[in-house]
Design a protein that fits this description.
With 207 residues, this protein is mostly helical. It is built from nine helices and no strands. α4 packs parallel to α9.
Length: 207
């Protein structure tokens, strides 16, 4: 029984395999970049609110701003705005704080968007490669004088189906990582909302 050589199959898969390979490189690059930079510590550092609230209560707003500048993040930007406009109407402050946080989170979500593109495009490219491969296979059979050699048709179909398999192998992890980052985005957004609400409850509304 002849063993299946995956690399030979991929090498003979045609242009579709090259396109899927390029999509896989894009998905891997985006995933690694997001894993490195899209973290709670970079958007909502733990302990930041605990560090600035005592300074805020003391009225040392310069120290608050200096502390926020030490840990630049989405949460720090929201808190910096609240400090600068602390005497404004609370409802307006709440709306504006939500807008700042929402913009920061949407920017992070947009950077992970290529994963959704890869998850959508890779299976279609694989299917297109399969269809083209099937057409080529039947074309070879037609000029070979019918189905005198079934192995000729089976080999062509096998090579064509490799495109679909490759497309799915790239699309499924990309889709999984896209949803993983969306879930992380939701958790970080909820954490920012909780921290900002603490500031409103303990220093803005109370004052």
């Amino acid at each position: 029984m002849q063993s299946l050589n995956l690399f030979d199959q991929l090498a003979q898969g045609g242009l579709g395999i090259w396109a899927i390979g390029a999509l896989s490189v894009l998905a891997l690059a985006v995933t690694l970049e997001r894993l490195a930079r899209f973290r709670a510590v970079k958007l909502a550092p733990a302990g930041l609110v605990d560090a600035v609230l005592p300074l805020w209560r003391q009225g040392d707003f310069a120290a608050v701003q200096a502390r926020l500048a030490e840990q630049p993040s989405a949460l720090a930007r929201v808190l910096a705005y609240l400090v600068q406009h602390r005497r404004a109407d609370t409802a307006a402050l709440s709306t504006r704080a939500g807008d700042i946080a929402s913009l920061a989170l949407r920017e992070q979500q947009q950077r992970a968007y290529p994963l959704a593109v890869v998850a959508t495009v890779a299976p279609i490219v694989g299917l297109l490669g399969t269809v083209v491969g099937m057409i080529e296979s039947f074309h070879v059979i037609a000029f070979a004088g019918g189905l005198g050699d079934p192995a000729l048709l089976a080999g062509g179909i096998s090579k064509a189906l490799v495109n679909t398999a490759a497309g799915l192998c790239v699309a499924l992890p990309s889709l999984a990582m896209h949803h993983f980052f969306k879930h992380r985005l939701t958790l970080i957004g909820l954490d920012i909302e909780r921290q900002v609400n603490r500031v409103f409850d303990e220093v803005l509304i109370a004052s």
